[in-house]
Amino acid sequence: MTTVAAYAAPAAKAPLERTTIERRAVGEYDVLIDIKFAGICHSDIHQARDGWAEGIFPMVPGHEIAGVVTEAGPGVTKFAVGDRVGVGCMVDSCRECDNCKAGLEQYCVKGNTGTYNAVDKNGEPTYGGYSSHIVVDENYTLRIPDGLALDEAAPLLCAGITTYSPLKHWNAGPGKKVAVLGMGGLGHMGVKIAHGLGAEVTVLSQSLRKQEDGLKLGADHYYATSDPKTFEELAGTFDIILSTVSAPLDFGAYLSLLKTDGALVNVGAPEEPISVNLFSLIGGRKSLSGSGIGGIQETQEMLDFCAEHGLGAEIELIAASEINEAYERVLNSDVRYRFVIDAATI
Ligand SMILES: [Zn+2]
Ligand SMILES: [Zn+2]
Predict the structure, then answer these.
(1) For the chain, is the Cβ count within 10 Å smaller at the N or the C terminus?
(2) Where is the Enoyl reductase (ER) domain (predicted)?
(3) Separation CA 172–CA 177 (nearest Å)
(4) pLDDT of residue 52 exceeding 70
């Protein structure tokens, strides 16, 4: 065990504070990562404030991790000391079920092991990226290509893969019209990636406040959902609507924007169940679906794709002492577009 510095929420809803945690000794297939940057994901705030389920406290959030390997176990073959690496939302899974074997570890039937707020195979709680170091099995570690700056790469480990995976699954590409609903941390990556894949991209945002940014990041069109004319004008337009919002939506209204066979895919989720009139699916063979992060191989593919297309996240770099203030700003949608913690300040 090694004692390392971290920022933790000591209890649900308590502000995060500097502390120390124990990391396990580097095992045969583990790498020790010197964390350089950690992104702040909206779900960090949900979990630190216990909005989803019973959290494990103290909690060290952070599942958008970028750093450098400083030690590798004797059995490690994929990484060496000095490699630039990332860790996303999971650090293990059963490795035996059909989903794990198919590279869909995120949907492991026994449940994947979350990077934080989870319990690992040894019965120990996992602690995330708001920390100076982390020990991770090489099979759940990603390579960050040289073409990506580590600070701009960190948010790709959650926001990037969460949008890339459904866009690929529902075949976003040339000739396809994709709408990205919401222009936050996830949405801005959705716009960049959908554009990179060659789709015609429309942002649907509450207001036109971020229009200039959206168009700069690769959107072809930008509409305000607060304007009822948007729904008239865009009826039957899209092949895919990627919803990144977690506020309750009028699903009927959004489903009316899909073409026949179109899909509305949710990567954000309201805390309460929703109500949908299924006739809005039946009249057009439409799908209402969801998607969660991506598998390890697909996450690597996403990082390689983003490096090739120069698609880092748009970030605001902060010191660890600013985490609590950053949380408030995220809740007020006051960030363009991802806070990233400089781990040297932890
Ligand atoms: Zn996340
Ligand atoms: Zn599994």
Answers:
(1) N
(2) 14-341
(3) 8
(4) no
User: Ligand 1 center to residue 227 CA distance, Å?
Assistant: 30
Quote the ligand 2 centre to 271 CA distance (angstroms).
26
Q: Where are the domains of the chain?
A: 2-158+294-345, 160-290
Q: Which ligand is nearest to the CA of 40?
A: 1
> pLDDT tens digits, residue range 98-108?
999 999 999 99
Q: Which CATH number fits domain 2-158+294-345: 2.40.70.10, 3.90.850.10, 3.90.180.10, 2.60.120.460?
A: 3.90.180.10
Measured in angstroms, how far is the CA atom of residue 19 from the centroid of ligand 1? Answer: 22
Q: What is the separation, in whole angstroms, between the first and last Cα of the chain? A: 19
Cβ atoms of 283 and 220 closer than 8 Å: no
Distance CA 258, CA 32 (A): 46
Determine the Cα–Cα distance for residues 18 and 28; give it in Å rounded to an integer.
30
Ligand 2 centre to CA of 106 (Å) is 8
253-306 tens-digit pLDDT: 999 999 999 999 999 888 788 899 999 999 999 999 999 999 999 999 999 999
Centre of ligand 1 to C-alpha 282, Å, is: 32
Q: Does domain 160-290 have CATH number 2.60.120.260?
A: no
